[in-house]
Amino acid sequence: xxEANGRAAxxxxxxDTLSRVTGRVRHNIExxxxxxxxxxxxxxxxxxxxxxxxxxxxxxxxxxMLSKALARSIDCTVRRIQFTPDLLPSDVTGVSVFxxxxxxxxxRPGGVFANIVVGDEINRASPKTQSALLECMEERQxxxxxxxxxxxxxxxxxxxxxxxxxxxxxxxxxxxRDRFMARVSVGYPxxxxxxxxx
Length: 198
Hints:
Elements: H1 3-32, H2 37-48, E1 53-56, H3 63-72, E2 78-82, H4 89-93, E3 94-99, E4 104-109, E5 116-120, H5 127-139, E6 141-144, E7 147-150, E8 156-161, H6 174-178, E9 182-184, H7 191-197
Parallel strand pairs: 1-8, 1-9, 2-5, 5-8
Antiparallel strand pairs: 3-4, 6-7
Helix pairs in contact: 1-2, 1-3
Protein name: FIG022979: MoxR-like ATPases
Domain ATPase AAA-3: 52-181
GO molecular function: ATP binding; ATP hydrolysis activity
């Protein structure tokens, strides 16, 4: 067997393992999200490609549920950030706080310090707060007070937003939208899936 053949045989085993693990994760998610195989597939592809996912749809179709189901289906740390108009950039990235006892500044990590960050209703935060995610999503690091902190690997942002309701929301800047590998819509469940849920 040549070295090339040896590599090919090893690659096949790796693909089989990947396929089995992905199948188990898919099954886990589909226990929660019924009748949406295309959406689940898109979420898994983005995760495996180390990208970020934007889920856009009307309220009540399972945007946050899909995010949480994916996050809980793999052995990673998960943090949920509820984006609101009063959320500050430092709530997302972290802040340096002065410690009276040690007389030094200590870094307190923000919500992005997890493997999977669920950004719920991202379009409800101010543009300044939304922009706090730019460096995190592109470079997988956070810079606070001229100090760079690397984020854990894997790192994925799953953001949700309601594109219909515009009052009290801020449109995502193009630079931010570009950071997402895919944008999916969950949609209402089909009748058979609704009956199965009941």
